[in-house]
Amino acid sequence: MSLKIIESCVNCYACEPLCPSKAIYMSKTHFKINAKKCTECEDDFAEPQCASICPIEGAILDALNVPLNPPGSLTGIPPERMAEVMAELQAH
Amino acid sequence: MELPVLNEKPAATGGCSASSCGTTDDQLSHLSDDIREKVQNHPCYSEDAHHYFARMHVAVAPACNIQCHYCNRKYDCANESRPGVVSELLTPDQAVKKTMAVAANIPQMTVLGIAGPGDPLANPERTFETFRRLSEEAPDIKLCVSTNGLALPAAVEELSKHNIDHVTITINCVDPEVGAKIYPWIFWENRRIKGKKGAKILIEQQQKGLEMLVAKGILVKVNSVMIPGVNDKHLAEVSKIVKEKGAFLHNVMPLIAEAEHGTFYGVMGQRGPNPEELQALQDSCSGDMNMMRHCRQCRADAVGMLGEDRGDEFTMDKIETMEIDYQAAMEKRKVIHQAITEEMNSKRAAKATAAEQFAAEEKLTTRPVLMAVATSGQGLINMHFGHAKEFLIYEASPEGVRFISHRKTELYCSGDSACGEAETALQRTIRTLEGCEAVLCSKVGYEPWDMLEQAGIAPNGEHAMEPIEEAVMAVYKEMAAAGKLEEVSDQQRASA
After folding, report:
1. Which of B12, B151, B230, B372 has the most neighbouring CB atoms within 10 Å?
2. Distance from CA of A43 to the nearest CA of B (A)
3. Given B73, B192, B260, which is nearest A52 (Cβ)?
4. pLDDT tens digits for B209-264?
5. Is A27 in the B-facing interface, judged by CB distances under 8 Å?
6. Which residues, at least 6 apart from B222, have a Cβ–Cβ distance to it below 8 Å?
7. H-helix segments, B323-459
């Protein structure tokens, strides 16, 4: 069992000091999780700490590649609204 | 020549009107001597000091413990610089090096702040290591920190140990209902807490932190972001409460929200306030509370005078090649600061005398007028219209001259042949001056001159190198004498 940080990570450092297993490390493009060390915070906290502070929707995935913070869950922006606005901006 | 500036001595005379008190460069005059001593050369706290002294921020604190609807950690935005993209995220060691290099090269620098791009107190190790080393190695630099307040109570003790006598807390609300519309979540005691519950905890921590800092004698400035329809009606209450608790300055800033910033407010179409709305709110918040109006909402890695950013001159690769003798730099800084302080004091004294003269003069009965000024500092009209990246807005009225705000503009006169774009940029600049009836600068070209006149804004280059307030009042009097201003009855003025 392990969580995963993907490339949308913005290197904000917030998760790294919170990890009880010291599984998070800085890597060249973004922070990563050592799969061997990650316990998903089981026995330590009710919720995975990295996913609980991460501000970027979709940046942390579970073992099944499902985002712990799906689109819209952190910002409150409905995904369809975001898509609409992005499409509008690109059209310009 | 008289120099009519309001409120030279509000503390001594007392009872000055809410609309004018605490808004001039002598906004700090009701403070005790020891507090005044602390802020008199701080560009962010003292309106007249910001014409002379510089500040810098070091971006050592990338992590944040809350989410605000006006911030997006994913994209660069006008309010912040994102780690690794628009700024160099610094280690404490690099931050110390950069601070010493800037202080040696920009001797007017008095203040080093840590303001993010995340929350400095959510990065306590990086923030405090930077402060600890700087208070030892650069003892002549004032340190300050800006925080959302969530982790503040736990940090007050540590803050008081360093050379920190200023803290800024961003407080946008004191009501969790309002807070839930601004903060979607906070991270607290190892959990993400959403909505009203999270906002309630944040508010409690902010208020507790404010009280603890005041009890320790640390100066507190409160920043608030004005969000129309969300907290605009609520901020007067916030202002009242933070003032009662001992905050010495309140800075109400306009929301910046564009769709391309990718923030909740930007994407959802939340508008920012227009200059009139901002001014009205700042006036209603003022009372006998200091309002800060010269804030530039600068970036978390800004360097230089307020309104300018010289960050590009001090990138880490450039700093590595600089040889810094800080001891020598510190001695040089001391001499320069002394000279600036003397200059400021003599100008303050001259203004006080002029204000007395002005008070004795027969008062005009004309309506107030907004004017824009192009300046690069020193309180003088010393900038070419086309070179101004921002204009300072002043109000002239029979009561005197008061500083209202600044408005940023895009530079249209680039000096090269990129003239194809120039016209639209110029039009944009003129649009940012909406509501002003004159613009004072050291020079104005023919083309902008005509366009300004067409827009109903009188261009004026006759007061180049003169002190701003003096020139603004002179122009006001000319307008009054030329019959360009309608008379206003006493009653109308009282209700204005």
Report:
1. B372
2. 13
3. B192
4. 999 999 998 989 999 999 999 999 999 999 999 999 999 888 898 998 888 888 99
5. no
6. B168, B169, B170, B171, B210, B238, B239, B242, B247, B249, B250, B251
7. 326-360, 422-432, 446-454
The predicted-structure confidence for B384-415, as pLDDT tens digits, reads as follows 998 888 899 999 999 888 888 888 775 544 44
Q: Tell whether the model's pLDDT for residue B193 goes beyond 70.
A: yes
Q: Note the ipTM here.
A: 0.96
Q: Which amino acid belongs to residue B99?
A: T
- For residue B410 the two structure tokens come to 């895009």
**pLDDT tier at B10, thresholds 50, 70, 90:** very low
B contacts of A81 (beta carbons < 8 Å) = 267-268
Phi-psi region of A83 (alpha: psi -120 to 50; beta: other; left: phi over 0): alpha
Q: Does B264 touch chain A (CB under 8 A)?
A: yes
Instruction: Say whether residue A89 is in contact with chain B using an 8 A CB cutoff.
Output: yes
Q: Is A9 in CB contact (< 8 Å) with chain B?
A: no
Q: What is the phi/psi pair of residue B405, to 5°?
A: -175, -175
pLDDT digits (tens, 9 = 90+) for A24-52: 999 988 999 999 999 999 999 999 999 99
Q: How far apart are CA B12 and CA B355, in angstroms?
A: 14
Per-residue model confidence as pLDDT tens digits over B303-345:
777 667 788 899 889 999 999 999 999 999 999 999 988 988 8
Q: How many CB pairs under 8 A join A and B?
A: 74
Cα(B142)–Cα(B138) distance, integer angstroms: 9
Of B363 and A45, the structure prediction assigns the larger pLDDT to: A45
> What gap in Å lies between CA B249 and CA B270, rounded to an integer?
27
A76 contacts on B by Cβ (under 8 Å): 69, 184, 264
Using an 8 Å CB-CB cutoff, list chain B residues near A12: 62-64, 73, 83, 118
Measured CA to CA, the distance from residue B249 to residue B258 in angstroms comes to 28
